[in-house]
Structure formats: structure tokens, C-alpha cells
Amino acid sequence: SGMSKDMMPGPYPRTPEERAAAAKKYNMRVEDYQPYPDDGFGYGDYPMLPNKSHHERDPWYQWDQPDMRHNWGEPMHWDFDMYIRNRVDTSPTVVPWHTMRKHFLIFLSTMLIMFGLGEIYPTYRPVGPKQYPFNDLYLERGGDPNKEPPVVTHYEI
Amino acid sequence: MAAEPPGSAAQRYRPNAFVSLPAELDPDTYDSSPEKRRAEAERLAIRARLKRQYQLQLNNPNPPAVIENPALLRWVYARTENVYPTFRPTPKTSFLGAVWAIGPLLFWMAVFKADRDRKEKLIKEGKYERPFSVF
To answer: Do B38 and B70 belong to one domain?
Structure first.
């Protein structure tokens, strides 16, 4: 690719000289350069940039790559492909996130509790057995047409 | 007007991994000390130098076939080839590796065994109706 080995990311910087060299390699100020903590997770000396998505970057600045809102040579976030404008958006919201979460959980839990109670204690209007006309459908049920059908009353006075 | 709750507006906002602090609430926006200005000037100098390099390559009458972005190459290298050399087995990485690699295996083994045992018990008692029986 035309880049030498010392221009590529390497292991975690231990001495201040290594930190300065790494900051210069990544085109950052030495004060801005902050590598990921050395937990053995495989980050090496890659800089830890603020976790802000590209939705928050200035839309009116003339970026070298306007769709990515990224300048040539600018250090890219480790999760760059997550923070592009098609994906995760970390823009500040009008309402604080913990307030939104609280309101949502209150609504969701209220609705779920009411649905659950409705399943355990169902309510319906009082019903009685169905009443059929024509002496309880005597002829339709195969009753003899020559005989008198039994009188069926569904009411009491 | 009701009494203000304790803490600054930025503290009450509580930014987290999903939302960041708005610039209006960030005290850093209103800080115009000489140190900050010097830092901003240094960052601008780096940015201008990189932009000049890029524009020179872009407007070259004999441009190269592809203008390589060293930042992109470093990003790709860091995420693919630099992970294994810089990985180190620590208690935390070993624990997480066990959770994600061995955990699902044991979980699904237990689930399938329990399901099969339940079905076997039903068949032995004669209560299980075979769905694809040839009889």
C-alpha cells in the first residue's frame, strides 16, 4: 500500500517518546492523543476519540468527503463505520435521555400491567342462554307437523 | 418560577453513551482562554496541513490513480491485523472469551437436553402425539 511499517498502528505506547511519536503518526496533538487503556483487548496504540456520531459534525463545513463528514488524513474513530450518518446517531436530544427512558418505562409498564390484569380478571356483560323462536324451532328440528308442538315460554310475568 | 433543582444544567442532562451533551450546556463552549485558543490554533494548523496535502494531490494535472488516505489505511490495519499482536490474555479478556465462546454452547446443550428429556418422558407415558407419524 505504499506505507511503511512505522506509519501503521503498533503496540501500546509505554514511554512519553513513544506517545509523542504515535500522536505525530496519527496527525494529532500530543495533548489530544489518548490511547485506549492497555487491557489486552487488541486496541494497541490506536487513539481513543470522543464517542460522537457523524450526525453531530458541522454540516456546513467544507469536508474533503462531505457524505462521510470526514477530512483526508483525520484520525478515524475505532467505531467509524457505526457512527456514519446512516447508522447510530448520538446527537443531543431535546429532552434528557434519562427522562425519556423514565417516561417510556412508566407507560410500558402501566400498559403491560393493565393487559395482564385484564387477562387474569376478564370482564364481560352478563349473558343468558340463546332463545330460539317457533317453539324452540320445533319443525326445523324434525318435529312431527301433525302433532301439537310443546309450548315454550321464555318469560315470566 | 419554581425553585431550581440542585446541580448545573449539564449535570441534570446526564449525557451517556447514547446522547452527548449539547454545546449550549457544555462549559467548554464558553471558555475562551488563551490555552484553549492555542490548542485550537494547533489543531487548525494540523488540519490545514492535511488539507493542503490532499488538495495538492487532488488538483494535480497528473493525478495518481487512487489518492490513498493514510488514516483509512491505519484504521483498517488497526481493526484487522493489529488486534492479534496487541492482544494479551488477562483475567478480563479470558473471562469475556469464556462467556461468549463457551457460554452459548453450554446453554444450548442444556436447553436441547431438557427439551429432549421432556419429550422422551411424554412418549414413555404415551401422552405425546407424533406429528409426522407414518401410522
So the answer is: yes
CB contact under 8 A, B92 and A9: no
Res A1: pLDDT: 62
Long-range pairs for A8-15: beta carbons < 8 A, 24 or more residues apart: A8/B73, A8/B74, A8/B77, A8/B82, A9/A44, A9/A45, A9/A46, A9/B74, A9/B77, A9/B78, A9/B82, A10/A44, A10/A45, A10/B82, A11/A44, A11/A45, A11/B85, A11/B86, A12/A38, A12/A43, A12/A44, A12/A45, A12/B86, A13/A45
Domain identity same for B109 and B52 = no
| B41 and B81 co-located in one domain | yes
Domains identified in chain B, total number: 2
* Residues of A in Cβ contact (< 8 Å) with B87: 40-42
Rounded to an integer, the average pLDDT of B126-130 is 79
Domain annotation covers residue B102 = yes
Same domain, yes or no, for B39 and B79?
yes
CB pairs under 8 A between A and B: 123
Do B60 and B34 have their domain in common?
yes
* pTM score of the predicted model: 0.78
Residue contact A97–B18, C-beta within 8 A: yes
Mutation target among A24, A39, A58, A72 for the B interface, most CBs of B within 10 A: A72
What percent of chain A is modeled with pLDDT above 90?
67
Under an 8 A CB cutoff, do B14 and A90 touch? no
Residues B82 and B95 in one domain: no
| Neighbour tally for A83: CB within 10 Å | 23
Does residue B97 fall inside a structural domain?
yes
> Which H or E element spans position B91?
helix B91-101
Range of the domain at B113: 89-128
